[in-house]
Write a structure and sequence with these properties.
With about 300 residues, the protein is of the alpha/beta class. The chain folds into 2 domains: about 100 residues, Rossmann fold (3-Layer(aba) Sandwich), CATH 3.40.50.720; about 190 residues, Dihydrodipicolinate Reductase, domain 2 (2-Layer Sandwich), CATH 3.30.360. About 25% of the residues lie in helices and about 30% in strands.
Length: about 300
């Protein structure tokens, strides 16, 4: 029987608590000195206090604790899920590289559909993503890159492979020790891309557009849309005097996706399909390092 120990039951851990409780698996216990929800299972202040049996663990604590916690657990790393960004830097990421990384959108039905149907858009031309909101918090341990934009880094990589970074522009909108709160990131190849993330944005926006020469995918919040579109050569001149190319397109059509939460899909992948997961932690940290190397703000931001 699978018995899961949940370590961290705060801002994100409480979502894991509810997901595990509603699954067919056993929640063996919770480690958190101040959980943010009512706990019905054995509760421990620290990992050193745990005196129950468990076969798997999910670590949903602050990044600075990831390596220490994983090293303290009597489990193979393959049986441990660590929430993103999996440590604080590439050195720590390498120490966790055999863990199951908590890259939640990699398990979404929307991404799976895009991966299986990417040929529908023809030759990919560009990627544009926005992941921004007003908070809900500013951070001093990691920047907007490791907190928000990392989601789009691994989504891009899962579809097109490792990117060649053209430029990264960080915005330090708050005084230290708050980390950079906004970033514009640009990829040269294998598909041109513009990625933007911010903690300091007047609305909540989560949108991804993948444009090809035959159509586009639009992924907004939890909804996925497709539009078939292309330009065709024309010989005539229209009423406005335009000539050369004419757009042939269809309206955005929503894709019917399975109604299941991304956390449920991630839990299933972690426990039942780990061999299908190919994107490792070190590859993401390599991209993050490159983002800092390509920083053009003239300021030390890492």
């Amino acid at each position: 029987m699978i018995k899961i120990l949940l370590i961290g039951c705060g801002y994100w851990g409480k979502n894991w608590y509810k997901t595990i409780k509603s699954s067919r698996h056993q929640l063996a216990g919770v480690v958190d000195p101040k959980p943010s929800c009512v706990i019905d299972e054995p509760l421990f202040r620290d990992c050193s206090d745990v005196d129950i049996d468990f076969t798997h663990a999910i670590v949903a604590t602050e990044p600075s604790t990831h390596v220490k916690i994983v090293n303290s657990l009597p489990l193979p790393q393959e049986n441990i899920l660590v929430e993103k960004p999996c440590g604080l830097n590439k050195k720590e990421g390498l120490k966790l590289n055999h863990c199951f990384p908590g890259y939640i959108f990699l398990h979404s039905a929307a991404l799976r559909y895009i991966q299986e149907n990417i040929s529908k858009i023809g030759s990919p031309q560009y990627w544009r993503s926005v992941r921004a909101s007003m908070g809900p918090r500013l951070r001093t341990d990691v920047s907007i890159l490791e907190d928000y934009l990392i989601h789009d880094l691994y989504l891009y990589t899962s579809i097109f492979g490792q990117p060649e970074i053209a430029e990264s522009i960080f915005e330090m909108e708050f005084e230290p020790p708050v980390k950079p709160s906004s970033i514009n990131l640009f990829f040269k190849s294998p598909v041109r891309a513009s990625l933007y993330s911010s903690w300091n944005y007047p609305i909540k926006e989560r949108k991804l557009i993948i444009k090809g020469d035959q159509g586009s995918f639009v992924w907004e919040n939890d909804d996925l849309y497709f539009s078939a579109s292309k330009y065709i050569t024309i010989d005539t001149i229209d009423d406005l005097g335009n000539q050369g190319y004419e757009l042939k397109d269809s309206p955005l059509t929503q894709i019917n996706l399975p109604i299941v939460s991304n956390l449920e899909l991630e839990l299933d992948a972690f426990l039942n399909q780990p061999e299908k997961f190919t994107l490792d932690i070190s590859s993401i940290w390599s991209i993050i390092d490159s983002c800092y190397e390509k920083n053009t703000t003239g300021q030390a931001v890492s």
